[in-house]
Fold this sequence. Notes:
- By secondary structure, this protein is α+β, with helices and mostly antiparallel strands.
- It has one domain.
- Helices cover 23% and strands 8% of the residues.
- It contains four helices and four strands.
- A two-stranded antiparallel ribbon has the order 1-2.
- Strand 1 and strand 2 form a beta hairpin.
Amino acid sequence: MAGTPDFGDLHLVNDVSSADWIVAGVRNFEYDVGSLVPLGFDAYARVFPPAGLSDGADSIEVSWAAVAAANGRVAHAAMEWVAITGDWRFMTAGGQAGVWNVPPTMGSLPVSVDQSVTWQADTINPTPQPPQPLVTNPRTLP
């Protein structure tokens, strides 16, 4: 479209009717996946981006299950970062000595997690399918 800015491979358009199915498929907020992505897919995945533990030279990924266990909490599909760490201040900073000192990254996944999700999806459904939306950052939920 002439005079319309592009954002990388994304292009602004005037007619968004091709996305009407997305609006129709998302329910009112009910604290489940249907509130965030359209219903109708065969499967949905909630991916917990790992925290990290770094000493400045080396860094390891720390799962939410490990953080939950270190805090005497139980890991489950509906867990939230604040609940497993026990403090709102850990949403964007801080850490727990010996457990993690780098909070999970909002909006992206490390390559190791991305590859793991892709491998697991291929194992579940080996027939190539168009990419499907994933909820990649549960920390954005209220």
